[in-house]
Amino acid sequence: MTQVSMTVNGKAVSGDVEVRTLLSSFLRDHLSLTGTHVGCDTGQCGACMVHVDGDAVKSCNMLALEADGAQVDTIEGQAAEDGTLNTIQQAFQDHHGLQCGFCTPGMVMSAAALLKDNPQPTEAEIRAYLEGNICRCTGYHNIVKAIMAASGQDVGAIAAE
User: Rg of the chain's alpha carbons, rounded to an integer?
Assistant: First the structure.
């Protein structure tokens, strides 16, 4: 066992882990942050997306030890302390950018990374950015609308699918 320490959602945390422990497992099993979903364990689905030192990372592809000393942000850290949804989360709710909800945390974290780097992406840029996130329910249309709305753009221009 090796000790790992990091800041998760603004709070210092540490724990003893096996060297092969994935960041997703550390977050879910050691810290009880179960909003980071694990859908495939191979980095294909994007449900486990978190931010590590400001970069979007699939946490099932990263060892917890690789995040030692890092700032990690999860879906649980996106809303305000009083539970008020952030702009992206509210847009997902307003534009029904979810159905079953399994992919939603990863989609929200991906959207946050995209909007940080590209505050007003086009529909095509959003769709290209989300290629690493799989949703089996929505067909992505309302997810794209939600991300465009969160960026302050008019979503009426998005053609219905």
Answer: 16
Q: CA–CA separation, 161 vs 156, rounded Å? A: 13
Output the CATH code of domain 87-150.
1.10.150.120
Give per-residue pLDDT as tens, 45-96.
999 999 999 999 999 999 999 999 999 999 999 999 999 999 999 999 999 9
For the chain, residues classed under CATH 1.10.150.120 are 87-150
**Tokens representing residue 24 in the block:** 């997703």
pTM above threshold 0.90: yes
104 burial level (CB within 10 Å; 0-12, 13-18, 19+): buried
